[in-house]
Design goal:
Layout lengths: L11 H12 L2 H13 L13 H13 L3 E6 L2 E6 L1 H7 L3 H12 L1
Antiparallel strand pairs: 1-2
Helix pairs in contact: 2-3
């Protein structure tokens, strides 16, 4: 009988690596910064002159990393940063992201 591979439980470090990989793309970092500014009021497609499918792909990566959450209302999708969860798991991370935005102005 072959040995079954054991499942590896995600660690805090691997979660953080996943977050950093998601934020490593400038567009995704910009999406998170904008969501922090708008406090979940939504993304405007006009702000991102890319194909809808490309924007959806970037949003999917952010959701899978645990950075953002989606709420649906009819046909509309509202995205927000998972502030409480991120502040609990990684204190100071959102403040660093905010400082990144301030540093670019």
């Amino acid at each position: 009988m072959k040995n079954q591979p054991t499942a590896i439980e995600p660690t805090k470090e691997s979660d953080l690596l996943h977050i950093f990989q998601a934020l490593g793309d400038p567009l995704r970092l910009n999406i998170v910064m904008c969501l922090l500014d708008t406090d979940g009021k939504g993304l405007k497609k006009e702000d991102y002159p890319i194909a809808k499918s490309t924007l959806s792909h970037h949003i999917k990566i952010l959701r899978e990393a645990g950075l953002i959450h989606c709420e649906k209302s009819g046909t509309a999708h509202y995205y927000s940063v998972q502030k409480a969860e991120l502040n609990n798991k990684f204190p100071g991370l959102l403040e660093l992201i905010r400082q990144e935005k301030i540093g670019k102005h």
